[in-house]
Amino acid sequence: MKALRDVFADTLIELGRNNPNVVVLDGDLANSTKADKFAEALPDQFFEMGIAEQNLVGTAVGLASLGFVPWLSSFTVFFTHRAADPVRMLVAQTNANVKIGAAYSGLLTGLTGKTHQDVQDLAIMRAMPGMTVLAPADAHECAAMIRWATGYEGPVYLRLMRDPSADVFGAEYRFELGKPQLIKPGNDVLLVSTGTQTARCLEAALSLDEAGHSTGVLHIPSVKPIDAAAVAAYCTSPRHLFTVEEHTILGGLGGLITEILSELSPRKVIRFGIEDRWGESAPNDFLLDRFRLSAPRLVERIKEALEKAKS
Predict the structure, then answer these.
(1) How many CA atoms lie within 13 A of 207 on its CB side?
(2) Domains 4-159 and 181-310 share a fold
(3) What's the mean pLDDT in 112-141?
């Protein structure tokens, strides 16, 4: 179990040592995003850009045009809101070879204050033409995604959580763009999730199995692009379908899955996530319980939904 921000730095150090064109640009948050580890290891490949995220993005596009592979490092909210215009105009529209390492994403940044929480990022980035959007479940998948993205020609948005999360995959994991991952089969209930929320869904699924509900977990590592036919195939058989995300239910994973199924396999989907509200400043465990996304609270919600379906 390793924090994704540490995986971000360590994997880029490994890649940067073998490829001097791999560079990191930071928005004055290197000690939080762990980009400072890259700066210490490879100082000539690190650029401290200060609190100027729009300029950071523009500089990265210039470097990409010269053959460099720039990785951007800052908090998610600064890329998806403060720098949304240059990301849209300079990166996505020109198909620039820029990689966005979006740290401190999602709900679980409560100790930085709710102003720094971004639970709209997947909706924003997946709506941007040409942008690849990835959300790793654990350290193994995160490292595999970084290696893949560094070799891929085009814009990539990588959603990174601050704190360590439980391992879902092993060291042998290999990332395949667009491919959903069936973590656990189940006949009665299927939980569809993305990012580190998948580990909590797996924990909830094991509890639901003990309660007599055969529960599967489908992980979506590649929010965009995605193999829609494969998603529909996995979602056809289970009797009850839930999407679970540490993100707003408006335009995120729940929206993606319902869009796919409305075209390929129409059925009822219940969406769990952040409803139409702002986050709060609080510790992570408190926030997970507050928004009913912890494994125990998920079990409660799903049992409630199953009882309601019976009646």
Answers:
(1) 17
(2) yes
(3) 94
